[in-house]
Design goal:
Number of helices: 2
Strand order of the largest sheet: 1-2-7-4-5
Distance between the termini: 74 Å
Structural class: mainly beta
Order of helices and strands: HEEEHEEEEE
Length: 187
């Protein structure tokens, strides 16, 4: 009888019904965007200038025919056209200069970099602009703090070029083309 109860007990537990239920939840997952565009004149639209087929923004220094003591200024505004915040910083300066005079000119020029966190009106970027960080040599990369830029916001950089009165005469006839790289990052 005990054996029968064990058999019935095992059989009885195998016939119990298991009740189940589920709840489901879902959501859409999308990635934000982080994209930069720039301009160097208030009459220009903001465009992407990432090099390659996008080209390079042209700075309006009017820095031809410089002689010792000359100062020129120009600015660039960089806009976050994406949907997430980030920061922008000057990360590289590459200079195309071939020949002794061009190299001498490139090494003699001083550059003052003045970051502008709220550049509503860049007309304040003049040859008299003070502050910022001064370096000697077009290819010299200054140590700047990244500027925070919200989605849709704009930051700016005022740059002042000076060919000092102490520039060597070996710089005469030289020419150099600097290309500044501004890098944006999120987070």
């Amino acid at each position: 009888m005990l054996a029968g109860a064990l058999v019935l007990g095992v059989g009885g537990s195998a016939t119990l019904a298991a009740w189940t239920d589920q709840e489901l939840a879902s959501t859409a997952v999308t990635a934000g965007t982080f994209s930069l565009a720039s301009r160097t004149a208030t009459s220009d639209p903001f465009l992407s200038h990432g090099g390659g087929s996008e080209g390079t923004a042209s700075m309006s220094f009017n820095a031809t025919g410089l002689y010792p003591g000359q100062i020129r200024s120009a600015w660039i505004q960089i806009q976050n056209t994406g949907s997430v915040p980030g920061s922008v910083n000057l990360t590289a300066v590459n200079v195309a200069a071939s020949g002794t005079a061009s190299t001498t000119l490139s090494e003699a020029i001083q550059v003052r970099y003045v970051p502008v966190a709220a550049p509503g009106d860049m007309s304040t970027c003049t040859t008299n602009t003070a502050g910022g960080t001064l370096v000697t040599g077009l290819a010299s990369l200054p140590s700047l703090t990244p500027i925070t830029v919200a989605a849709g916001a704009t930051v700016g950089y005022c740059m002042v070029l000076t060919l000092p009165s102490t520039a060597p005469s070996g710089a005469q006839g030289g020419s150099a083309i600097p290309t500044w790289t501004f890098t944006g990052t999120t987070g």
